[in-house]
Amino acid sequence: MAVTYTSQAHKEGRWWVVQNDQVPGAISQVTRLDQAAEAQREAIAFVEDISADSIEVLVRVSISPEIDREVQEASALREEAQEREQRASELRRGVARRLEADGYTIRDIGVVLGVSYQRVHQLTH
After folding, report:
1. Which residues touch 41 (CB under 8 Å, ≥6 apart)?
2. 3-class DSSP string for 8-64
């Protein structure tokens, strides 16, 4: 089972400097952020003398306080939107099934819900 470590990345010139929270001696420099997790896995494995296969790394990026806040807000809004969409789907499914049980046609249910009759078929089956 892999152990998850958290590392912080910040830009210094053309390099991203990445340092692990749990193993502060594990520091990496990469030119692209998509290389950060792998570089940290190797650094942590080296410092701790463990297998890199047993390590997962979550890289948190810091650009500036303003941008960091906006990224966090965007992430929170996306999560909220996904939760609301899931709730909307549950409500549409329940309404579609109740209307079908009451004898409404698939096409009429589609008009009521503002979706295609094909989508109503998916919701009810």
Report:
1. 52, 55, 56, 57
2. EEEEECCEEEEEECCCCCCEEEECCHHHHHHHHHHHHHHHHCCCHHHEEEEEEEECC
- Burial class (CB within 10 angstroms; exposed 0-12, middle 13-18, buried 19+) of 117: middle
Query: CB of 16 within 8 A of CB of 9?
Result: yes
CA 79 to chain CA mean position, Å: 8
Query: pLDDT of 84-110, one tens digit each?
Result: 999 999 999 999 999 999 999 999 999
pLDDT tens digits for 29-70? 999 999 999 999 999 999 999 999 999 999 999 999 999 999
Contacts of 113 (CB under 8 A, 6+ apart): 92, 95, 96, 119, 120, 123
Amino acid residing at 18: V
Contact 30, 36 (CB under 8 A): yes
